[in-house]
Design a protein that fits this description.
Elements (H helix, E strand, L loop, with lengths): L1 E10 L5 E10 L4 E5 L6 H9 L4 E10 L2 E2 L5 H6 L2 E4 L6 E5 H15 L7 H14 L4 H5 L1 E2 L5 H15 L3 E5 L7 H14 L5 E5 L3 H6 L4 E6 L2 E6 L1 H10 L2 H9 L1
Parallel strand pairs: 3-10, 3-11, 6-9, 9-10
Antiparallel strand pairs: 1-2, 1-4, 4-5, 7-8, 11-12
The structure holds adenosine-5'-diphosphate and magnesium ion (MG) (2 copies).
Length: about 250
């Protein structure tokens, strides 16, 4: 599904090397968590996957279903089935959530060579998805993310994800700023989208999110690399001992 091979990335402007050889393989239906200290390159990894400007890939590949996505435009990546939920969802004044979703869904269908959804079909679909995620119909009419609480923004991202039916979802610190109840809602939303085929990469600081979204594999990232990979117990270890022991262990190896 996703294969990152020896990904090296530097900042275009400053020339600073941020990623120093990231390797990651995510199979269909798998949920992987990436944890690690602040500044280790977790967000940079997700930005590079999304195709954001300002980063230069100096070495390595990112394959989705065997296709190198680094050569694709951001919208082509989305059409290929990649979805990213960011740490800070953008607010879009003047554009209703409904219009935004319809535009996104139809752009994606077009890129896939499918016909646009009719207004009726779209409405039916969005209402059904919103309902299953316990999202108030009122939230669909409001401008995208404007005045939404942290929890509402996150739930809204899950709705976008549900509408676009991606193959691979990357969630970057979706838990930051969420209270326990909101975290549970987001987790339930994600879990509802797990279907044995769709894959997830969940970037998080907190083990507690992983109590709700149970990962198959946990990776620890530090200084631009994945330094350790394990099962869910690795997240618990980090929660109890912090990163210092792990980092020392790797340095001494
Ligand atoms: P994480 O998400 O793991 O906290 P980031 O990927 O956000 O880490 O950052 C990795 C490193 O790259 C940090 O040292 C950060 O300061 C630096 N960095 C990332 N983007 C920029 C940028 N646009 N300008 C300057 N430094 C950056
Ligand atoms: Mg950070
Ligand atoms: Mg980050």
């Amino acid at each position: 599904m996703l294969e990152i091979k020896s990904l090296h990335v530097k900042l275009e402007e400053e020339g600073k090397q941020i990623l120093k050889g990231v390797d990651l393989k995510v199979g269909p239906g798998e949920v992987h968590a990436i944890m690690g200290p602040n500044g280790s390159g977790k967000s940079t990894t997700s930005y590079v996957l999304s195709g954001r400007d300002g980063y230069e890939v100096t070495e390595g590949e990112v394959l989705m279903d065997g296709q190198d996505i680094l050569e694709l435009e951001p919208e082509e990546r989305a059409a290929a089935g990649l979805f990213l939920a960011f740490q800070y969802p953008v607010e879009i004044p003047g554009v209703s959530n409904m219009t935004f979703l319809r535009t996104a869904v139809n752009a994606q269908r077009k890129a896939r060579g499918e016909e646009e959804l009719s207004a009726t079909d779209f409405l039916k679909l969005v209402r059904e998805k919103a309902k299953s995620l316990k999202i108030d119909a009122d939230m669909l009419k409001r401008p995208v993310n404007m005045g939404f609480s942290g929890g509402e923004k996150k739930r809204n991202e899950i709705l976008q994800m549900a509408m676009l039916e991606p193959k691979l979802c990357i969630l970057d610190e979706t838990d930051s700023g969420l209270d326990v109840d909101a975290m549970k809602l987001v987790s339930e939303g994600v879990n509802a989208l797990r279907d044995g085929k769709r894959s997830f990469v969940v970037i998080t600081h907190y083990q507690r999110l992983l109590d709700h979204i149970k990962p198959d594999v946990v990776h620890i990232m530090s200084n631009g690399r994945i330094i350790k990979t394990g099962g869910p117990e690795l997240a618990l270890e980090v929660e109890h001992n912090g990163y210092a022991d792990l980092l020392a262990e790797v340095e001494n190896a």
